[in-house]
Amino acid sequence: MDAMTRLGHSLMAGIALSLGLDESYFADHGTADPLILFRIFNYPPMTDEALWGVGEHTDYGLLTILLQDDAGGLEVRSRTQWVPAPPLPGSFVCNIGDMLDRMTRGLYRSTPQRVRNLARRDRLSFPFFFDPNFFARVQPIDLQGWETPPDDYSERWDQSSVHLFEGTYGDYLLNKVGKVFPALTNPATCNFVE
After folding, report:
1. In this structure, what CATH number is given to the domain that contains residue 95?
2. Angle at CA 181, nearest 5°, toward 178 and 182?
3. For residues 77 and 189, what is the distance between their CA atoms, to the nearest angstrom?
């Protein structure tokens, strides 16, 4: 976890430099103490090619650093088409999340992705999510000299704009997760401990 967190910081420093910002920009604006999450997903073989292991979505935070086994099945969407992202030995797939899209005013777009396991065995996926601190206010960066692309909400899988959001990363995260698991946002159905 420590090594992956260091990798996340290094990647964010490189992104800051690519935008003409100080290397420490993202650490100074919400990732000094990042919210990190590591998960292991198992995708059983699909008997019906019309079924998806996980449908089109974007990740919520800044970066997802993904290790996948050799079963394949991951696809990412470019502006015009779905493109396979086959596993390459010794490499990670790095997906840009909604908060990096928001912070860069769309210069870096969050990556639509989906998975269909057509292998005849289980597919394993190991995503490491490198996100802003839960309590960080996620604000757009004042990028001098960069032309801001138009908001792409009408092309997004959820038809929602990451650029209209106001609040902390935790607010954004709970709102998104609450759409998938509505009971989490209804206090009547949850037992909260204070």
Report:
1. 2.60.120.330
2. 65
3. 36
User: Is 113 within 8 Å of 83 (Cβ atoms)?
Assistant: no
Rounded Cα–Cα distance for residues 85 and 140 (Å): 29
H/E run at residue 76: strand 74-77
pLDDT tens digits along 105-158? 999 999 899 998 888 899 999 999 999 999 999 999 999 888 888 888 888 888
Q: What is the pTM of this model?
A: 0.87
- Placement of tokens 């902390």 in the chain: 168
Expressed as residue numbers, the domain containing 80 is 2-189
> Do the Cβ atoms of 15 and 21 come closer than 8 Å?
no
Q: In this structure, is residue 194 part of a structural domain?
A: no
How does strand 35-38 pair with strand 54-57?
unpaired
